[in-house]
Amino acid sequence: MAFPTFVPPASTTTGQPSAHNDSEIVLQTQALTKVFGSRTAVDHLNLAVRRGEVFGFLGPNGAGKTTTIRMALGLITPTSGSVEILGQNVWQQRDRVLSQVGALIETPALHLYMSGRDNLQAVASILGTADARRIDEVLGLVDLSDRQRDRVSTYSLGMKQRLGVAVALLDDPQVLILDEPANGLDPAGIVEMRDLLRRLATQGKTIVISSHVLSEVQQICTRVAIINHGKLVTTSTIDDLTRGQGYFVIHVEDATRAFAAIKSQPWGREATLEPNLTIHTAAPDGRGRDLVSFLVGVGCVPDQVAYEQVQLEEVFLRLTSTPGAANGGA
Ligand SMILES: Nc1ncnc2c1ncn2[C@@H]1O[C@H](COP(=O)(O)OP(=O)(O)OP(=O)(O)O)[C@@H](O)[C@H]1O
Ligand SMILES: [Mg+2]
């Protein structure tokens, strides 16, 4: 388990927000690479996150998400390649860049014996920027106003994670980078975290969230990048990831004959006859009605034809289970 790290936005007055432009690239990595000994944790990664996006950074355990985020936050040096945030190289202009970035890496480092409010106060005094009003504001944003005086040791995991996000928000950063913010949360905690991130997105923040569980982020992310073994597998919208990945389920009386007819077609080569005698298949040009016409044409009038959308989790697993790519080879 990695040591919990909290990264407060660096306090400086030099980093002015640039002019707002939705297509502006806010965070960009170019051939970003990190090698630990003989293990390549991040391998020539190219990513571009635009202003206002809620960007999902996804990959299974050990894929290189935290390592990428640490490089993006100037916590570790890239072996090669670069990260730019708001057009500035993170490594060369660290303080200037990081004044615009709030971050939470894995679990937040909080003082458990202090209240939520006092934790925020402590960070605020280090930053020298936030006032009591801002603390009220961030407490409201993360829905902790009524528990602010309680000791953090009495908080649920979800409340601690939200307090971690509140800390990251103190300096009102333009960009929020959250490493596994839903890690370890129960379904209710995940919903609360999702609501919080949605609220922040409507305020125009650019948000990058990493996760190894696709379902945690699929409802809020505008776009996702999937990485595996440090390499980019794909960057896509959620819709594009699942489009065309579904299949038709056919109930038909003479399933064996219908199945043979489908299998003889170029679009039906992958069809399967299931133990319950339903047929799973693609359709000609993906069109359900052409499939029905075909079945009628071969004398197998179907009782039911339903489209089954493939679960995103399945797509994710398929994309990240490339055989023969042992992690790092160390
Ligand atoms: N300080 C380090 N020294 C050596 N190897 C490291 C170090 N940090 C990370 N690694 C290795 O780099 C690879 C990527 O790790 P990383 O923590 O970035 O993955 P991750 O995608 O965040 O995984 P998880 O979902 O488990 O958090 C792993 O093989 C890990 O063992
Ligand atoms: Mg990680």
Summary tags:
single chain; 330 residues; alpha/beta; Rossmann fold; Alpha-Beta Plaits; 7-stranded mixed β-sheet; 11 helices; 15 strands; 30% helix; disordered N terminus; disordered C terminus; binds adenosine-5'-triphosphate; binds magnesium ion
Summarize the helices and strands and which ones pair or pack.
Blueprint: E1 5-7, E2 25-36, E3 39-50, E4 54-58, H1 65-72, E5 80-85, E6 88-89, H2 94-98, E7 101-105, H3 116-127, H4 132-141, H5 157-169, E8 175-179, H6 187-202, E9 206-211, H7 214-217, E10 223-228, E11 231-236, H8 238-242, E12 247-252, H9 255-263, E13 272-273, E14 279-281, H10 288-297, E15 302-308, H11 312-319
Parallel strand pairs: 4-9, 4-10, 7-8, 8-9
Antiparallel strand pairs: 1-7, 2-3, 2-5, 5-6, 10-11, 12-14, 12-15, 13-14
Helix pairs in contact: 4-5, 5-6
This protein binds adenosine-5'-triphosphate (ATP) and magnesium ion.
